[in-house]
Amino acid sequence: MSIYSAAFLNSELSKPTSIFGLRLWVVIGIFVGSSIVLLLFLLSLCLTSRRRNHNHQKLSGPHGGELTPVVSKDIKEIVIPHANYHDQRLIHTVPEIQIDIGKVEHRVVFSDKASSGESSRSNRNEAYNTNSSTSSYGPEVSHLGWGRWYTLRELEVATNGLADENVIGEGGYGIVYYGVLADNTKVAVKNLLNNKGQAEKEFKVEVEAIGRVRHKNLVRLLGYCVEGAYRMLVYEYVDNGNLDQWLHGDVGDVSPLAWDTRMNIILGTAKGLAYLHEGLEPKVVHRDIKSSNILIDHQWNPKVSDFGLAKLLCSERSYVTTRVMGTFGYVAPEYACTGMLTEKSDVFSFGILIMEIISGRTPVDYSRPPGEVNLVDWLKAMVGNRRPEEVVDPKLPEKPASKPLKRILLVALRCVDPDSQKRPKMGHVIHMLEADDLLSRDERRIRREFSNLNQENPLENPAADKMEDKIFHEDNSDRLKVKAAGIVPRRQDADKDI
Ligand SMILES: Nc1ncnc2c1ncn2[C@@H]1O[C@H](COP(=O)(O)OP(=O)(O)OP(=O)(O)O)[C@@H](O)[C@H]1O
């Protein structure tokens, strides 16, 4: 370019324009600059929307993306320090007590750490809204060899995208949804909450403990789902509510639970528990036996559910934990005080459950007069005062005969013996519940012994112990309990289930 044309260009570019009198080169500069900024903005918009679409496609539910949570990788298992399973030394800790009174029953968690026993819908939403950076959606744990691994999509389809209308109930560790699988199987899907690692911990315990369990009085775990932050358990659906609802719900003046039905529920629950304690190797302690964990089918058969708190125990060993969990009113005293966990803790809770079933009262009821708040204390006092007939649920359609009432009360009182060693094993409980003939023969003796019960603490009556030992001796109970609970030899059973 010649010096003349450069001077010409320069003079042309320096001419003022009609846009605020700005020189031409300034206008051109502004135009080029804004175009670049606009271009960059459009480019970033395009990239963001492409990324959103990509995530949406990967996780979208059956009814579009609205219900679809964004998966997070944030959940990490928190290893809670606890006593060695194989170490029977007592570990002394100063437990922190948390009482969640947001639920109908009071969940008590004695913990050496802030724990995560609470549940709320907001937690659920929190889990859903956690930002995602998950790139892989494949299973994080391998298939265990039993049941099925379900994909998140399968379970979303089954539960209408985890719809609110499908919610059956909400426990301490997650929300339970009703669902129908592609093969028309009705299921209950428990979506474990992302509560600081506890959900994952419970998931692993539960999967290992329940996956191999098969018993008509235990809710069957059909499979599980592990995708991103999701931990879901898929159970058989039990179609007639839970015992808590039938005992304490609004059922009118007359309960549909007749005496025989109640006895059947007690016996079935005992069989389910006996299987956990004595039919599995290693044995399983449920740790949260209570009426809301006893599901009922349409034939009024009980099925023990919610093994979330179960801990696998090595045979013949006790387990000392720094983290005591259970539900207020049902927890055995030695477990609450020292963390010492054996299957006898379940036996205690089972004794409370029997009392609840017979009386229709909750284990702790602050709306009652002072002497009646605690179910065990009240019931012991009533039995000690020779007024056992007065403890039965007033909603029962027909009062039970005196003999079976006393029999079941005796079993309940034995189960809640403050001394865990004196509590019967669940197999023995079954034996006692079924030993009608033996009891008939000794009925007169039972009556006599009952009348001798110490009013303060009828359990500490040596005569009653002697009498029961004689009637309900444990020597041949192993054979009977196996027959009664449908338990097959331990190893063989576990292998068969896998
Ligand atoms: N397999 C199932 N079939 C039908 N309903 C179920 C099933 N499992 C659970 N439910 C229902 O969902 C509710 C919540 O169950 P979940 O076991 O999570 O909590 P919970 O027993 O009420 O409380 P917690 O967690 O404190 O033990 C139960 O009360 C029960 O009615």
UniProtKB/TrEMBL annotation:
UniProt-listed InterPro entries: Kinase-like_dom_sf, Prot_kinase_dom, Protein_kinase_ATP_BS, RLK_Ser/Thr-Kinase, Ser-Thr/Tyr_kinase_cat_dom, Ser/Thr_kinase_AS
Record-level Gene Ontology MF annotations: ATP binding; protein serine/threonine kinase activity
Membrane-spanning segments: 20-48
Ranges annotated as biased composition (Polar residues): 128-137
Binding site for ATP: K190
Keywords: ATP-binding, Kinase, Membrane, Nucleotide-binding, Phosphoprotein, Serine/threonine-protein kinase, Transferase, Transmembrane, Transmembrane helix
Enzyme class per UniProt: transferase
Region (Disordered): 115-138
Keyword Cell division: no
SUPFAM superfamilies: Protein kinase-like (PK-like) (SSF56112)
Pfam families for this protein: PK_Tyr_Ser-Thr
Low complexity composition-biased segments: 115-127
Catalysed reaction, written as an equation: L-seryl-[protein] + ATP = O-phospho-L-seryl-[protein] + ADP + H(+); L-threonyl-[protein] + ATP = O-phospho-L-threonyl-[protein] + ADP + H(+)
Annotated Gene Ontology cellular component terms: membrane
Membrane topology: Single-pass membrane protein
Stretches assigned to the Protein kinase domain: 162-439
Subcellular location: Membrane
EC number(s) stated in the UniProt entry for this protein: 2.7.11.1
Family: Belongs to the protein kinase superfamily.
Name this protein carries in UniProt: non-specific serine/threonine protein kinase
Species lineage: Eukaryota, Viridiplantae, Streptophyta, Embryophyta, Tracheophyta
